[in-house]
Design brief:
Length: about 200
């Protein structure tokens, strides 16, 4: 089983690139949304740590936003609760797909939370800052301050780039991206299959 970890800035198109590999993808952001919607345990823990802000179940994104904006330490509290739940889901995903040839991990804090293993192949999504900001502004719950706070949790982009075996330019054009992913995918598969 080959595991690919996708790295890149917030809004660089990691999820979009992940899907182009045409194999099972573990998307941490999707899992976090499910946890907020379905996990009573997570709700109780968050309510306990942030009683002033977390009041409704399923967990309300607006309440979370208020908590993060009110105090920069609140984001760390949220991450501390959410992260073990995401890790558990990721491990289940890896077990469930153990027989698959190729898997992709789309996990924003893969490096920061020490979720990557030596054998993982890291692919860095390189996008222009201007395009990233344009895309972020189109997001439904866009909040500049939240994005800045999230970026502070992450290691420098240059560091992630250095750690990566492959760098893929993302110009957000489907055909060119598909071609670039195909080249990387073939290169990874050939490398693993060569004696």
């Amino acid at each position: 089983m080959i595991i690919i970890g996708i790295l890149g800035d917030i809004g660089s198109g990691k999820s979009f690139i992940s899907k182009q590999f045409n194999c099972p993808v573990f998307c941490a952001d999707d899992e976090v949304s499910k946890i907020y919607k379905n996990s009573k345990i997570c709700y109780k823990k968050l309510k306990n740590k942030l009683p002033k802000y977390i009041k409704s179940y399923p967990i309300n994104k607006i309440e979370l936003t208020r908590a993060i904006l009110a105090n920069k330490f609140n984001l760390k509290k949220i991450v501390k609760i959410i992260h073990p739940l995401v890790r558990k889901k990721m491990n289940n995903f890896l077990k469930k797909n153990a027989k698959k040839k190729l898997l992709v991990l789309d996990v924003p804090l893969l490096i920061e939370n020490k979720l990557n293993k030596k054998k993982y192949i890291l692919v860095f999504v390189d996008s222009k800052k201007k395009q990233i900001n344009k895309r972020l502004k189109k997001r439904k719950n866009y909040n500049k301050k939240i994005i800045e706070n999230l970026r502070k949790l992450q290691k420098k982009i240059s560091h992630k780039k250095k750690l990566s075996t492959y760098i893929i330019k993302n110009d957000f054009k489907l055909l060119t991206v598909k071609k670039r992913v195909k080249l990387i995918k073939n290169s990874i598969l050939n490398e693993r299959n060569s004696p």
